[in-house]
Structures are given as C-alpha cells and as structure tokens.
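Human: I wish I could look at a protein chain and see how it folds. This is the protein in question:
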Amino acid sequence: MLAAAQPRRGEMHLPGSIGFKLGVVVVSLAVAVSALLTANLMLLGKLEGEVIWTDVLIEGGLLRYRILDHAEQLLSVPPAERAQVEQDLRADIAKMDRRFEVLLQGDPERGSPAVANPQLASVINRRQDEWQREIKPMIEQLLRAESRAEVSGALQGLRVTTEDFVEELMQSVATAEREYHRKLQNIEWLQIGFFVFVLLLLGLTTSVVRGVVRRVRSLAGTANRIASGELGERSAVHGDDEVARLGSSFDAMTEKLRSSLESEREARGRTEELLQTVRETATRLATATSEIAASTNEQASGAQEQAVSVSETVTIVEGLNAMSGQAAERARVAAETARRSEKSAGEGRSAVERAVSTMGSAQEQADSVAERIVRLAERSHAVGEILSFVDDISDQTNMLALK
C-alpha cells in the first residue's frame, strides 16, 4: 500500500501528483536560473561592449585634440621635426577614420558592438560626413601649407570644429551613459524579476509542502485512532497525488484489517461454540462412563452372584451326580434282582409246566402257582419300567454334569 503511494520506476507522474508539482518547481527554477545566467551574461557582455564603445567614442575627443595640436605644431616646429609631426598627424587621422568605422560597425576583436541607439547613430553618421567633407580637407590644406599665414583661417576653423565636436561628443557620451544605465537598470529589473519568480516558486513549494504536511498529519491522526481500536475511521485525504493514493491504500488496508478481525471474531465464536459442544459432549460422556461403570459394577456383582449360584449349582449337580450314582447302583441292583426274579419266574414257569405235565392233579396248587406267577410277571414289568426311568434319570444327570 505505502508501495502504491510511491511511483514505480519508469512510471509517469500524474499532473496533480506531488512529484509532478515539485518537478515543475525544480524545472521552472532550473530554467529561470539558466535564463537568468544567460541573460546576465548577454547583458553583461553588452554592457562591457557599451563600455568599450563609449571608450571609443570618448577617444574621438582625444584624437581631435591631438590632431589640432599636431596641426598647430606642423608650422611651428623646425623643418627637421616637421616630418615626424606630419607622420603623427596622419596616424591620428587614420585612427579617427578607424574610430568612425568601429562606432558604426563594431569591432569583434576589441569587443565593441555596433551602435544600437538611433540617435547616436545619426550623430555619428553626421560627424563622420563632416569629418570626411570638412575636417580632413582642412588638415590636408595644413599639410600642404608652407607658412602659418596661408592656413590661419583653416587652422581657426579646425579649432572651432574641434570645440563643436568635443561639445557634441560630450552630449553623445551622456546619451551613451544614459543607455548604459538603462541597460544596467534592465539587468537590475531582471534580477528583481528573478527574485520575485523565486519567491513565487518558494510560495508554490511552501504551499505544496504545507498541503502534504497537513494531509500527512491528518493521515497520522487517522492511523492513531485506528491503532486505538476505531476501525471505522477513514482518511480524510483527497486529491490525486501520492498522499491521496496513500490514504486510499490506507483505507483499503483498514477495511481488510476490519474484515480480518470480523472473520477472526466469527471464527473465535465458532470455536467457542465448538468448545462448548465438546464440553457438553465430554460431560455427557463422563455421565455415561459413570453409568457404565455403575452398570459394570452391578454386572460384576451379578457375575459374582452368578458365580456363587454356579458354584451352588455345581454343588447340587455334584450331589445329584452322587444321588444319580446311588440311584443307578440301586437301579442296577434292582435290575439284577429283577433279572434274577425273571430267571426265577422262568424257572417257575418251567417248573409249573413240569408240574402241570407231571402234576395235573394238583389244581389248587397250580392255580396258586399261576397267581404267584402272574404277580411275579407284574412285578417284572414294574421292574422294567423302573429300569427305564432310572436310565432316563441317568441320562439327564449326565447332561447336567456335562453342562
């Protein structure tokens, strides 16, 4: 989010962004400084040229006085020195011609510009024309003269024109000085304008910085309130710069934090419900376990009682086995007796038959014997039933013993 607030490498700054505003301020300041330096250099160069041009202009008065001096000496020096004076005079004339060229056309080697003031240009053109048409012919006349009397009028005219030239030269110098001061004042106004421009840039920068600081403080206050638990707060930062995007990212982060806390709160509620369910289940399990333990104890008691009952049953079964053995022995004895009785009955029948066959006369004894035989047969039948009952009891006893 704090990364959304800063532009990525290669990303263009939006027109309303802080980077764009500060960039405009820096670029404007750099352009202004460059323009000021360039203008100062140009103006200072022009001022330097003006100074050189003014020196050339003033140099004209010195040359005119030197020419006048050489012209007066030309007819007063000895003939041996006349050639040197004439040479100096011609050198000054050449310098005067060159001076007019420099004033009107400029001299790059000396750094002197051409005249720019129309008034001065008019005066110089007029003085050059006067120089060529009047002054130089006078000087040539002086050079050709043999005596002072011949050129006294020309010499006087040279004096007058020299005084006029110097007087007008002073006026031209004053005009040049006024032009120089005007350009110097332009430089001063340029410095003042640059200072005002810098003040405006500083005001704009201060406004931008104050706006950034104010909104950052507002964002910091919102952050403090959110940190204290007021998650419903929103950043009151508007605009389309980095601070506004930071506020939007901060609001998005707060919304996600609030959603996360609500989700965590809901999850904690579900966890508490689950834990409550687990506690209730554990309680029910503990109750069921207690009931099972009690039932187990009851079952253990019942098992013990059953064990006692089984032990008693075993004792009874053992007693029954003993009784069954006794009954079986008795039944065996009874069966043996029955068999002996049956054998005796058989022997009796045989005896009866023999008696019937041998003693047919003893009817009463035979009837009596027959009655006894019938009772013995009934007894033998009862003994057989008893034997069968004893066998059943024996089988049941054996089954009980096996169980």
In short: Residues 18-227 form one domain.
